[in-house]
Amino acid sequence: MKKINRLLEIPKEVYSNSPNIILTGFEEMIIENNKGILEYEDYYVRINTHIGIVNVHGLNLKLEKMTEDNLKIIGKIEKIELESTSD
Amino acid sequence: MLIKLLIQIILGYVRIEVEGYYIERFINLCTNRKIFTWNLKRDSGVKLFLNIGINEFKKIKDIARRTSCKIKIKEKRGMPFLLYRYKKRKIFAIFLLIILIILFISSRYIWNIEISFQDNQVVENIGTDLEKLGLKPGIAKNKIDTEKIINDIRLNRSDIAWIRNRY
Questions:
Q1: What is the CATH code for B2-83?
Q2: What CATH number does domain A17-84 carry, 1.10.60.30, 3.40.50.12780, 2.40.40.20, 2.60.40.2000?
Q3: Complex-level ipTM
Q4: CB-CB neighbours of B74 under 10 Å
Q5: CA terminus-to-terminus distance, chain B
Q6: SS3 content of chain B, % helix, strand, coil (to 5)
Q7: Residue B126 and residue B136: Cα distance in Å, rounded?
Q8: Of A36, A38, A64, which has the smallest distance from its Cβ to B31's Cβ?
């Protein structure tokens, strides 16, 4: 199955559960394929994904446009940490 | 996404304040039930501001009860609230409608004919010729037979080489 997907050049975030993180500048971040929010403060967002946890530190963080598996964070992003839980 | 927001503005949305200790659970439940929320902002402390459409507000009440959060409506925005505010001014709306209808109907008639010449090249009695063919003030625009006017003037008059009709 993986070979077929690679042959057809389907993006990885479509056929697998791995998240797709897009950073536009330092003030906008889109996370696709997320599983939900674990913590949310003004200065700290903790997002659960299928393969791990993404920590975002910053200032005045807002969640804009929440849908089922799409999440957009705006605000001054200062640090991003990745914690993988599955091995 | 922009279209989704536009639909929400037309259908109306509210900005609410959620107060409680399980705000993350609240957000996750909202996304799991496919409730569209936007502009979430965490206040210092235990408050959260978010926008939600009014047709989904009842669902969110149920979630708030489950997560023991308190909900307060901060602002009401969108078309339905705007219409509700102007509900008492019915005559205003009726007159606006009447004026629009009058404007629309009156724009279908010819009100004035103005003939202007360039460089003193006077074309003699073109106005009376046009009037004979039915182009005079007060006539409806769709009753003007443009083909007939063009053909007749070009046949009868030798001093006009080209004529065009344009609304």
A1: 3.30.70.260
A2: 2.60.40.2000
A3: 0.72
A4: 11
A5: 40
A6: 45, 20, 35
A7: 12
A8: A36
CB contact under 8 A, A66 and B27: yes
Phi (first) and psi of residue B44, to 5 degrees:
-65, 135
Residues of chain B whose C-beta is under 8 A from some C-beta in A?
Answer: 1, 23-24, 27-28, 30-32, 34, 36-44, 48
Q: So where are chain A's domains? A: 17-84
pTM of the model: 0.61
User: Is A66's CB within 8 Å of B30's CB?
Assistant: yes
Interface with A, mutate which of B2, B26, B28 (most A CBs under 10 A): B28
pLDDT tens-digit map of B86-139? 778 888 889 999 999 999 999 888 888 888 888 777 777 778 888 888 788 888
> How do residues A46-74 score in pLDDT, each as one tens digit?
998 888 899 999 998 888 877 777 889 99
Q: To probe the interface with A, which of B13, B15, B29, B31 has the most A CB atoms within 10 Å?
A: B31
